[in-house]
Amino acid sequence: MLSRNEIKYIQSLCHKKQRQLEGLFIAEGPKIAEELLNSDFTIKKIYALPEWIAKNAINDIEVETIDEIDLSRISQLQTPHQVVIIAAQKNDFSKPVLKNKLSIVLDGIQDPGNMGTIIRIADWFGIENIICSEDTVELYNPKVIQSTMGSFVRTKVYYSNLNEFLKTVDVPVFGAMMKGENMYELQKPKEGLLVIGNEGKGIRNEILQYITNPITIPKKGGAESLNAAVAMGIILSHLV
Q1: Under CATH, which number does the domain 102-239 receive?
Q2: Which of 128, 204, 191 has its CA nearest to residue 161?
Q3: Distance between CA 116 and CA 65 in Å, rounded?
Q4: Which of 72, 148, 186, 226 pairs with 40 at a CA distance of 20 to 30 A?
Q5: What is the number of helices (H) and of strands (E) in the chain?
Q6: Which Pfam family is one of this chain's hits (predicted)?
Q7: Coarse DSSP helix, strand, coil percentages of the chain, rounded to the nearest 5 percent
Q8: So where are the chain's domains?
Q9: Where does residue 228 rank: exposed (0-12), middle (13-18), buried (19+ CB within 10 A)?
Q10: Residue 97: which residues within 8 A CB-CB, separation 6 or more?
Q11: Domain 4-88 sits in which CATH superfamily?
Q12: Percent of the chain at pLDDT exceeding 90
């Protein structure tokens, strides 16, 4: 049985301030556990039910067997699923390489589920770099991590002052906007940035000046707008 202090410590990692202080994050479930174990992330400790441990040969990582009660106490999921992992954050990325590839820029994405889905879609299309505004939701938010379904291990997520970052780029900057060139009439670029704006407000005014190629998804029906992750997926299906 886990001690009260250990449960309290694990629960504290659900808060951004504590995650940043410790340089750690929480991930849950067999799928994400498998992705982490096969990645270059450093795993600090695994808490798991006996049935998960029996199916997974773990070497050189501290593993603690727990029961369903302890799992429910440390899990952030409504339905806890076998395993909780504490891993070290990776914040040592060098400057992203933008030439000869398409990268994503996120301007003020706030919803953790959206963020996780964006990372998952980027992974599906082989996008390596995601550059985020400083007010975009944190990668290591537990809801973001869960929504990625493990895709975060294959994408590099950077946080930057977008004004300063976009001043320096020398590749085309595509902006997902309500008014722009029909995306289906656009030739596939060999390189560039695709900017996705905030869920409610879109791309902020100070970023619009850097958009060299405003593009839009042609509208057929009466919906006012598209979810940010959905829009990105549709655009990438044509650009990649």
Answers
A1: 3.40.1280.10
A2: 204
A3: 29
A4: 72
A5: 10, 10
A6: SpoU_methylase
A7: 35, 25, 40
A8: 4-88, 102-239
A9: buried
A10: 129
A11: Ribosomal protein L30/S12 (3.30.1330.30)
A12: 94
Q: Return all residues near 85 (Cβ < 8 A) that are at least 6 apart.
A: 26, 27, 28, 32, 33, 36, 43, 45, 46, 47
126: left (phi over 0), alpha (psi -120 to 50) or beta: left
Q: Tokens 């400790």 sit at which residue? A: 45
Using pLDDT thresholds of 50, 70 and 90, give the confidence band for residue 41: very high
pLDDT number for residue 1: 84
Q: Classify strands 83-88 and 24-28 as parallel, antiparallel or unpaired.
A: antiparallel
Whole-number average pLDDT of the chain: 96
Question: What local confidence, expressed as pLDDT, does residue 57 receive?
Answer: 87
Q: Structure tokens of 201?
A: 């407000």
| Dist. CA 130–CA 128, nearest whole Å | 7
Amino acid in the structure at residue 98: L
Per-residue model confidence as pLDDT tens digits over 2-20: 999 999 999 999 999 999 9
DSSP-derived pairing of the beta strands 156-160 and 83-88: unpaired
Return the axis-axis angle of helices 112-124 and 228-239, rounded to nearest 10°: 10
Query: Six-digit token pair at 196?
Result: 């996705």
Side chain identity, residue 199 = E
